[in-house]
Structures are given as C-alpha cells and as structure tokens.
Amino acid sequence: MKTSVEGIADIDRELINALIDDSRLSYRQLARKTGVSVATVMKHVKGLEKAGVIRGYTAVIDHEKLGFDIDVIIHIKVSKGKLFEVERKIATAESVRAVYDVTGDYDSVVVARFKNRRLLDSFIKRIQTYDFVERTNTIMVLNTIKDRQTRL
Questions:
Q1: Residue 139 predicted with pLDDT over 60
Q2: Can you give the three-state secondary structure of 63-114, one letter per residue?
Q3: How far apart are CA 18 and CA 27, in angstroms?
Q4: Count of CB atoms situated within 10 Å of the CB of 22
Q5: Which of 44, 125, 139, 140 could join 73 via S-S bond, C-beta 3.0 to 4.6 A?
C-alpha cells in the first residue's frame, strides 16, 4: 500500500479529502473518485471512523443567512490553575464554536457566533462573572476570508 505524508495511506488521504469536499458522497461515488473498489472504500472509511480520524459528517451552513451575523474571538485570562474548569463551562454554551488553550498573554481563546449584540453582550458579561476569569478581550470578526477544513 502506498503511503504519503506522515504514514497516511494515499487512498486514506484521497478519501478524507473527498469527504471534506462533500461528506454526502456515497461509497460508490468515492470509489469512482479514488479509482478503487466500493469494498475497498468501505473498508478504509470504516477503518478511519474506528480509528477516530473521521469523527462525524456534517453540512456546511451559511450562518449569516440564518441571522447569525456576529462572529467573535474572545481571549480569556484565567487565574489559579482553573483553566480547564473554566473552559469546560464556556464550551457548553450553544454559541461557542471552539475553545482553545493558547500561549501568550491570555490562557484561552473562544470562537463564538451570535445573532445580535445583545446576546454577545450577555455572554461576555456572564463569563466575566465566572470564578477565576480575570479578564477578557473580545475581537469582532468583520469579514471571513477563509473558514474550512484543511485538506491533507
């Protein structure tokens, strides 16, 4: 079996990229795209799922068309070693898309999306009341130039 970068089999890389482009492709369509049999596609996709490389399938939504016009990046400074506790609490909010531990002046970065400024304001004020949150810095996204999964 041919392998590419970092030991990932070429067929796995091709399948992952095809699914990133369109997760609705059938096994038959994936076989046609990659030039292997349907059975081979099934075996590899199931193996990638079992290994946790493929964690799920989803639709790409245009949130702006649904009224979610405000994207923000929130930097959070957390005290007394309570970072994971604070992050887990923040991650439960529906508006939160991602929570990251980071290096630098802040301890965590939160990426979130809101329908309006009132909801954003309420969210920020709520997390500022959490124990161990020292300060926040909110950055409003003006334009999204690129927002997609990285192909292999």
A1: yes
A2: HHHHCCCEEEEEEEEECCCCHHHHHHHHHCCCCEEEEEECCCCCCEEEEEEE
A3: 11
A4: 11
A5: 139
The length of the chain is: 152
Structure tokens at 19: 């699914």
Count CB atoms within 10 A of the CB of residue 78. Answer: 21
Residue 79's domain comprises: 63-140
- Bridge-based pairing of strands 108-114 and 96-101 is antiparallel
Q: What is the pLDDT of residue 8?
A: 82
| Predicted TM-score (pTM) above 0.90 | no
Asked if residue 45 and residue 91 are part of one domain, the reply reads no
Query: Would 149 be classed as within a structural domain?
Result: no
Whether the pLDDT of residue 51 is over 80: the answer is yes
